[in-house]
Amino acid sequence: MSIRVRTQTPREIAGETSATITEPETETGSPIAPDREDIPTKTPLRDPSDPLAPIGIRSPEAEASPDTLDLAPLDKVYLIWMVGASCDGCTVAVTGATHPRLEHLLQGIIPGLPRIELIHTVVSVESGPEWVHNLFMAEAGELDAPYIVCWEGSVMDESISGDGYWMGLGEDPETGRQITSLEWLDRLAPGAAAVVAVGTCATWGGIPAAKGNPTNAMGVMDHLGKDFISAFGVPVVNVPGCSPIGDNVLETAAAVLLFLEGLAPLPEFDELGRPAWLFGETVHRHCPRAGYYEEGVFAEEYGDKECLVELGCWGPVVQCNIAERGIVDGEGGCMNIGGICIGCTMPGFPDKFSPIYETPPGSLLSSTTSRAVGGFIRRMRRVSMHDKNMSPRWDDDAPSGFSRNRRGPRGAEKIVHKFYEKYQHSKETGN
Ligand code: SF4
Ligand code: SF4
């Protein structure tokens, strides 16, 4: 399998069509390896007033927003967003973030946070040689502010790509040589203030690294190694999710930026580099259906309102905060809207959660126990609820026109309530 993203070549820029281009052969037959000195190359636009020039050139000339509130030494930070094997879902997720909003970071109007200058493979204004020129500037230390690398998608192993390449990102303007995304990661990571892996593909390998894995796909941390430390002393930061919650990504970025500004300590990360405050709890603990689980009531089909564990939900063992945070602006998110948890934030995803949509083997024991214990508790609560739904003067009958059957506890229920009432007030009376 070969996945190729082709940028415009210097010859295409010069006006030649792909039909007229004959790729030079190298010793290995690779169409991408040779130096192509004979090919006319395009010099990136250099005029800082040109909106299509590299942002690394435009930015030093740009005026700061009048709304900027400078509290710290860094006026701005470049955010270089790179991609490997990705579906762009992480980009979509981040553009939907609301706490903080991407546009507020770009405007630099959040007190204490530097303005973000975004160099993004999809949403940047400039493209082609102008876009790639930003990366050359970053590598050469020519940007006028520190940069953070955000990586979306798995890292594919170019050493097994044979005569081709898995993913390219621009060309060397001197030689026309295709530069791979992986090469850029290797060139930019050491000088970055921080490297943030965004989404499950970038953190642990994700879908491209599933069984079979023809590209030997892996996470950024796998590739850079456990000893990697950024120029500002930060190991790889991992924000998983497929796609991740946009707020999780930007909140983590904001926390790291506050650290870089000297306004806050390094945020707490767990042993896998996840923001501890976001991934410390299981999704089950905050799930709106957790009460059903506790009382041993389970959905039989999608659309039911009860706990989804018997339909395949892995929530009890998965670290994720979507139940309380929602997916966009507090809304939506997996079981909030009726979907099961398939473990998409976890390093074992997807293989260790397969087959998806089957009842997790371990859930049988816990759901059976919950049925037995929770079933008893649920019945006892119903007795109590019946009583608490009656005002003291209705203990015989509620005068509600909505239900002819509304009546107070009878028989055994009444005896239970009598005992409970005695016990309830025993501390006051001392009897
Ligand atoms: S739906 Fe999933 S996460 Fe929610 S209570 Fe049931 S098992 Fe837990
Ligand atoms: S609840 Fe499960 S499937 Fe949904 S985002 Fe979290 S980890 Fe992924």
| Strand element count | 7
* Main beta-sheet strand count, sense and barrel state: 5 strands, parallel
User: Which small molecules are bound?
Assistant: iron/sulfur cluster
Order of helices and strands: HHEHHEHEEEHEHHEHHHHHHH
CATH architecture descriptor name of the largest domain: 3-Layer(aba) Sandwich
Given as residue ranges, the uncertain stretches (5+ residues, pLDDT < 50) are: 1-36
Strand order of the largest sheet: 2-1-3-6-7
CATH homologous superfamily placement of the largest domain: NADH:ubiquinone oxidoreductase-like, 20kDa subunit
How many separate domains?
Answer: 2
Name the descriptors.
431 residues, alpha/beta, Rossmann fold, Cytochrome-c3 Hydrogenase, Chain A, domain 2, 2 domains, five-stranded parallel beta sheet, two-stranded antiparallel ribbon, 15 helices, 29% helix, elongated, disordered N terminus, binds iron/sulfur cluster
